[in-house]
Design brief:
Blueprint lengths: L15 H6 L12 E16 L11 E3 L5 E14 L12 E6 L3 E2 L3 E9 H4 L5 H8 L5 E3 L9 E4 L6 E17 L5 E11 L5 E9 L7 E7 L4 E3 L2 E10 L5 E3 L5 E18 L4 E11 L7 E18 L5 E12 L2 E9 L2 E7 L3 E4 L10 E10 L6 E4 L3 E19 L4 E10 L2 H4 L3 E6 L3 E8 L5 E11 L4 E4 L4 E3 L9 E8 L6 H4 L4 E12 L12 E4 L3 E11 L1 E14 L10 E12 L3 E11 L4 E11 L3 E2 L5 E3 L1 E9 L1 H9 L2 E10 H4 L3 E2 L5 E15 L2
Antiparallel strand pairs: 1-45, 2-3, 3-35, 4-25, 5-16, 6-16, 7-15, 8-14, 9-12, 9-13, 9-16, 10-11, 10-14, 16-24, 17-23, 18-21, 18-22, 18-25, 19-20, 19-22, 19-23, 25-34, 26-33, 27-36, 28-32, 28-35, 29-30, 29-31, 29-33, 36-43, 36-44, 37-42, 37-45, 38-39, 38-43, 40-41
Amino acid sequence: MKTNWKIIIGACLAIPLLMLSSCERDFTTTDLEGLEYGLAVPLGSASLSLSDLIDDDMENVVVNADSSLQIVYRNDSILGYTVADLLELPEQNPSVETFKLGVIAIDDFGPLDADILLDDMLNQVDTALADSIRALEGFTVPLPALTSNSGQEFEFSDFDDFEWVRFSEGRLILTVSNQLPLSINSAQLNVETIDPSQTIIPLGSFNYAGLAPSETISDTIQLANVTLYNAFKAQLSAFETAPSNGAVTVDLQSGITLTLVGENLKVVAGKARLPEQSIDLIEEVIDFGVEKDERLVELALQEARLEYEFSSTFSVDFLVEVDLPSTTIGGDPVHIEINANSSQSDVIDLSNCMIDLSSNAQNPYNQIPVNIALTLGAQNQWIEFDSSSVVSFTYHLIDLEFDYARGWLGKQEAALGADTVTVADEFLDKISGTILFENPEISLLVNNNMGIPVSFEMDIQNILRNGSIVDLDADVLTIPYPLVIGESIVNTPVSINNQNANLSEFLSQIPAQIFFSGNTYLNYETPANEYVYTNFITHEGEVKLGLEIDLPLALSISNLQFVDTLETTLDAETLEDVEYIELSVVTENGIPFEMDCVLELYNDIQQARLDSIEIDLLDPAAVDNSGKVIEPNRKVTKFILDKNRIDHLAQTNFIRILAKVNTANEGADISQFYSDYTFDVQLGLLVRYYAEID
């Protein structure tokens, strides 16, 4: 951008006759050899306004309503991070629960009946006696005592609850009821079971004495480690009765009634009809592992699925019930029922669930309690089984996408990406030297919807035009953050200023670029042994830092230079036969700066500087109490040019004006830039000629 110097170059026509008429002459003098006359030539004028330093396309230089100037730079996003940089929910490891079938309950069975009739018992006594008693069927007569001379087997009634079973516990109740009109003085009874190969397996042997008519007695057979089949026999190996007490009615169908009942039956193997029953209940905990030191107490999942696989070496139906008591959907605890056969897998949707990860009192974070119950369905057919049969249930959470998480996210540290910004180079390129801003400010513009104390240690460097670097020594800054889920911090500034950084010193040399990088710290000021469970992040969690540089142009300035050029079309013939030239420089300094001014004469054809003319120090403009200029400082400086300089001036086709300025008190005072401040220069020549007179 080129400064607009208003150049006025012209020549005032000299009228020698008028000039001669203005001179006193002595016409009587005869030795007059020549005559002096002069020509006034305005060489040029220039007016420099601070507004001339600003182009229309300079977005970063602002003219305020009071004409004061400031540099403002804004970048909405220089550094930042998202929730993915802080928390990632990893795929959880599968949990495997193995159920051994173990002890199975079966239904009680019985009563199974076996009747030992009088007619059958007569087969075991003397044949003649037996025949005589049979002949008395229906008569009421006294009966003699009966004594067996052989044994006899009797079968219990059939049943189909099992083909065979091996017991871990249970009992058989054998009930003997004497329905004979005779007292049994003694009897020996054996109970047996019979396997499919007709092998007899004894279960118990019982002796009875003094069993009166209509009397009943019971005995117990313990079944632990006993294998039963579905066929039972009773063997009446010996008996003796007393004679009847008087006359009795002879009824060959009366006798001894045997009853078998199975109670409290638990089996470990067999082939049986199995009733519905609970196999096992497992109370487990999923350790919701995360990769760092996070302690999560609450988790809302937008998406989640429970993947499971059920397998069994036991081909029956099971009901698998999975309860997640601290996980709710719509306010209700999650309860899952799976009707599984020997092999089954599926995925169950748990999206939009809420998980309380703090319900385990021993470890109140990162814990998801899981209760798994296995129920065996009722079987209406014989099922062969064994206690070593294995049921496996494998499950794990997959495809986790959270809505928000709450708890302690640990003391984490992460490096931020780097960025370099260019600051108002179009404006600052026009000046050089040392400046010191009075109240500079760099603001980090915070946009944050994550409820975590986040601190930044910024590495900020001023990269100068010569490539050297000045570091900003700034404190660790903690940015504001929301306290309630759903709230956001929007465009909230965190200031880097002279109170928390060496900012004025940092900007004491005009920057070409500013480089940003640094580290971010979570829970920076929280001691490592204290956990604050109020951190939260959402699935859209993001911290974005913008940059705003505000440099009010209230400066102390030392050796700051403004440079521009003034073209001239001075006719070299005008300077022929001159006696001398007087250069007049009239300055009006409307800027509150001390100023040195140098005029450098150039010839662009020769590409050479021909001469330089230094102007004495120009005092600052007068200001009011607020520091605003109220009156420019005017000064006239005159130079007599010798022949050598006159030759240089004759060859000059442009003049370079170099203004070197300092704020008052040798650059120590602060002055505000205003766009309407001007510095005016007028250049004029007084050319004196000498003409010979013949």
